[in-house]
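Researcher: We're teaching a course module on how sequence relates to structure. For the next exercise, students receive a sequence and then see the predicted structure as tokens, so they can try to spot secondary structure elements on their own. Here is the exercise chain.
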Amino acid sequence: MYVDGYVLPVPIKNLDAYKEMASLAGKVWMDHGALSFVECIGEDVKPGVHTSFPQAVKLEEGETVVFSWITYKSREDRDRINRRRHEGPAPQRRPGEHAIRWQADVLGRLRPDCPALSGFAKSG
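Model: And here is the predicted structure for the students to work with:
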């Protein structure tokens, strides 16, 4: 499994527009073969002592943090899906200068009864 993840600041006054864009973007990714698309809007996200999402994205007054991720079967699937997604008129997420984006191979998951969280190798 492979993951694209994002952490970004979004002005609270623009949340409705962001949700609309995210809904359309999620449909596009899923239509192209992503396994899941998740968007989370921060509610009780406080700055940490050393680091935190608000500090990492340089959160300003009137903004909230959005944490999202897209899962794929593999990096190869992710690359194929992103190529196809960029070919059409799909919404393009354009993270700002304070956004964080990462790509990662999944080390493991912890809930064997949940398809999105299953498969963590058991030891012993």
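Model: If you want an answer key for the exercise: The longest strand covers residues 2-11. The domain at 2-117 is CATH 3.30.70.100 (Alpha-Beta Plaits).
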